[in-house]
């Protein structure tokens, strides 16, 4: 798939089939995510692979009952790592490590789509609860839950604000 086509055709998928997603693909996917840029190349991101359905059920509940997280055969929780970004002080912890994680997430969304699979970036969740479920150490902040599986829906493209309204030349 052409990159431009992948960017244009990707959709958030919230309905998944039961077909298994091989662990080899998940590893390849994380490798592609990890190719994304990172602040000072400190790579302040970690990935928790959740194959266990009961754990995914708990994650779904912690994510305001987004139960499709349990329906996908696997989920990857992309996290920011405060320890690895400590060199950059407050800006590192409040911004760079989140951007490191976000850059990886977008690579992963495109790679998932390229593979013919579906995913949605889930950001609405109770962070404390997710950290407890996954036993995350206190220097790890969960940024997004990515349920991954066979797509059972083909949503229309969501409307975008005309780009002219977003572009500002020289000054605001
Ligand atoms: C930071 C962030 C948080 C999001 N959180 C959720 C979420 O909790 N649940 C959900 O269903 N979609 C979530 N989304 C997906 C958006 O709803 C979706 O990207 C947007 O509606 C545009 O649709 P598209 O991805 O199909 O282009 C999130 C996306 C981002 C970038």
Provide an overview of this structure.
This protein has 172 residues and is α+β, with helices and mostly antiparallel strands. The chain has a single domain (3-155), classed as 3-Layer(aba) Sandwich (NADH Oxidase), CATH 3.40.109.10. Helix content is 38%, strand content 15%. Helix 1 (3-9) crosses helix 5 (89-114). The longest helix has 26 residues, at 89-114. It is globular, with a radius of gyration of 17 Å. The model has no long low-confidence stretch (mean pLDDT 98). Bound molecules: flavin mononucleotide (FMN). The site of flavin mononucleotide has 11 residues, from loops.
How would you describe this structure in keywords?
172 residues, alpha+beta, NADH Oxidase, 38% helix, binds flavin mononucleotide
Query: What are the segments in which pLDDT stays under 50 over at least 5 consecutive residues?
Result: none
**CATH topology-level fold name:** NADH Oxidase
Average pLDDT, rounded to a whole number, is 98
Determine and state the CATH class: Alpha Beta
What's the end-to-end separation, in Å? 37 Å
Ligands bound, unique: flavin mononucleotide
Fraction of residues in β-strands:
15-25%
CATH superfamily: NADH Oxidase
Number of separate strands: 4
Q: What is the number of helices?
A: 6
Helix content: 25-40%
Given helix and strand content, the structural type is alpha+beta
CATH architecture: 3-Layer(aba) Sandwich
Rg, Cα atoms, Å: 17 Å
What's the helix-strand series? HHEHHEHEHE
Largest beta-sheet details = 4 strands, antiparallel
């Amino acid at each position: 798939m052409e990159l431009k086509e992948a960017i244009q055709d990707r959709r958030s998928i919230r309905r998944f089939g039961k077909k298994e997603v091989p662990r080899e693909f998940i590893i390849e996917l994380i490798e592609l995510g990890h190719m994304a840029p990172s602040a000072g190349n400190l790579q302040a991101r970690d990935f928790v692979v959740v194959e266990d359905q009961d754990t995914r059920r708990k994650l779904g509940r912690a994510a305001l009952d987004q139960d499709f997280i349990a329906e996908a055969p696997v989920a990857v929780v992309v996290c920011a790592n405060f320890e690895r970004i400590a060199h950059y002080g407050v800006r590192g912890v409040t911004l760079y490590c989140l951007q490191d994680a976000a850059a990886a997430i977008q690579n992963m969304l495109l790679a998932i789509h390229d593979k013919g699979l579906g995913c949605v970036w889930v950001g609405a969740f109770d962070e404390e609860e997710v950290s407890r479920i996954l036993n995350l150490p206190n220097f790890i902040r969960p940024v997004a839950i990515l349920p991954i599986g066979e797509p059972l829906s083909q949503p229309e493209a969501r409307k975008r604000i005309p780009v002219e309204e977003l572009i500002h030349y020289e000054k605001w």
